[in-house]
Amino acid sequence: MSGTCVANCHLAFARFLMKRDLPVCGRAARVGRGAAWFAAVFALGMVMSPLAMAAEGKDAKPAAEAEKKSEAELPPLPADKTIKQSVRVGGRTVSYEATVGTIPVRDAKGKKIADVVYTAYVVPGNDPHRPVTFAFNGGPGASSVYLNMGAIGPKRIQFGVDGDAPSDAAVTKDNPNTWLDMSDLVFIDPVGTGFSRSLEDEDKTKKDFYSTEADIKYLSRVVYDWLVKHGRLRAPKYVMGESYGGYRAPRIAYELQTRMGVGVNGLVMVSPYLDPAAIGDGDALSPLPWMINLPSMTAAHLEAQGKLSPAAMTDVENYVRTQFVTDFLAGRSDPGAISRMVQKVSAYTGLDPSVVSKLDGRVDIGTYLREIHRSEKKIGSVYDSNVTAFDPFPGSARRQSGDPILDALLAPTTSAMVDFVTREVGWKTDAHYEALSYTVNNAWDRGETDDKPVADLRKAIGNDPNMKVLIVHGYNDLSCPFFTSRLIIDQMPTFGQQQRVKLSVYPGGHMFYSRDGSASSFKADAAQLYGAK
After folding, report:
1. Which of 35, 200, 209, 309 can pair with 191 through a Cys bridge, CB separation 3.0 to 4.6 Å?
2. Are the CB atoms for 292 and 279 separated by under 8 Å?
């Protein structure tokens, strides 16, 4: 979360290596040049549209009428529901109101076309100076449960570390690293995720919600509408996004600034999918994907040896900026280039030099995740390569299983969130909670591969001298590697002062916040951004 960001996730099914890896970021993890990919999704079953039925000889008009009838028969979602709760943070008790509610999305004529469901945690008091943070996960197709119950919400469920399993009890505990003591929190589930839903047919839904540009516009309006509904336009405002949510965050901030008339005080991007144009598979000459991946592979190897530290990472970061690029571009023109790459990459990653040699020193993610744990007959996760699961088909020439983290977290997070919403809050619905929607991801129109998130980030910061940005990553993440953000920040202007855009990298992977130490460090960095004491 990708967010991780190896490449854009709009690849055809024939190019998918895995069938069940949904990136929480929206970037497909690069596993081999021109063919092997994973961390992209497809819909296992497509609902036949009225046009498809017409093509089979059925009358289009009755089909359309049936579609309208089915929409009209959708049971209404419950009214907003609020309960009072408390959490222990930093040695004190913080009392708050937890609300599950909806924001309607309307078309240009005022017709309601969707219900967006949010979960908000608000400390009562109507303090106009108390910040409010709007949080989005990614996918596209992920609900906000991961940031909510994994990172900064008041209740937490464990996921994302070695040993976690789908059958783990879906029981939440107080989150000692919640941000509720420094900001109210609003977690938004985009249409098609969580309990949020479209009220339009399949084609209109895709046009109005399942595309990059439409997504930014309606979610920005949802933020505006929540602020108006709850009288919070005077509050300091922050936008947070993980993975593909990190693609959303700077673009939503710029849209709020320049279209909705809402200033944003700060941005927090967690394992963001920032620059699709720089890291795709379309350019056979670009060293960037290989440069970006190698430091995260090295970090995992160092961690396995108990040697990971920022100082220990300096060497590989310098190498990929210098000698690696020179040798990569030299290729066969320099007889020593490939052998130098093989030697260095083998030492950094811990892979057998014979394997690295077969790849000419260019280790793709899929090969790395399988080979680094092959002696144990295990597979590493693209989200944290030191989190493993047994390979169910160790003798197969290609990987045939899902991602160890993704497969382990879906059940406990879904169950915990549904239990909280329906039993604790009492917001009753028979709808299914979509923590990860394959349908949304498969239907997504990604438009042009460009650097709009970085461009909008630059413009948003340039517009507002008070805005600050925190970008955070886990060292081991191969879905949205930290070095992408490192390179991007190094190319940005200072905007008048140092550290307006700060990068922090912690032990762990895409969901580094699943580790207590990293979650605590993350909160400390965020407290500086928010000006909290």
Report:
1. 209
2. yes
Query: Taking the chain, what is the end-to-end CA distance rounded to the nearest angstrom?
Result: 29
Task: Count Cα neighbours of 168 within 13 Å in the Cβ-side half-sphere.
Answer: 21
Strands (E), 411-499: 468-474
**Calpha distance 248→239 (Å, rounded):** 9
Radius of gyration, CA atoms only, the chain: 23
Q: For residue 413, what is the enclosing H or E element?
A: helix 404-419
Three-class SS of residue 207?
helix
Q: CB neighbours of 469 closer than 8 A, spacing ≥ 6? A: 250, 266, 267, 268, 269, 457, 461, 500, 501, 502
- For the cut 90, the answer to whether the pLDDT of residue 334 exceeds it is yes
Cβ atoms 446, 156 nearer than 8 A:
no
Average confidence score pLDDT of the chain: 86
The H-assigned helical ranges of 43-113 are 50-55, 60-72
Q: Give the containing element (helix H, strand E) for 273.
A: none
Mean pLDDT within 125-153:
95
In contact, 35 and 398? CB cutoff 8 Å:
no
| Backbone dihedral region for residue 404 (phi beyond 0: left; psi -120 to 50: alpha; all else: beta) | alpha
59-68, 160-169, 230-239: the lowest-pLDDT one: 59-68
Residues 6+ apart with CB under 8 A from 65: none
Confidence of residue 533 (pLDDT cuts 50, 70, 90): low
> 3-class DSSP state for residue 515?
coil
Q: Which amino acid is at 177?
A: N
Q: Which of 370, 253, 347, 362 is nearest to 301 (CA)?
A: 347
Q: Kindly state the percentage of the chain with pLDDT values over 90.
A: 73
The dihedral built from the CA positions of residue 335, 337, 339 and 340, taken in this order, carries a sign that is: positive
**CA–CA separation, 388 vs 369, rounded Å?**
9
Say if residues 338 and 358 touch (Cβ distance below 8 Å).
Answer: no
For 411-421, what is each residue's pLDDT tens digit?
Answer: 999 999 999 99
The answer to whether the predicted template modeling score (pTM) of the entire model surpasses 0.85 is yes
Residue 137, pLDDT score: 96
The DSSP letter of residue 319 is H
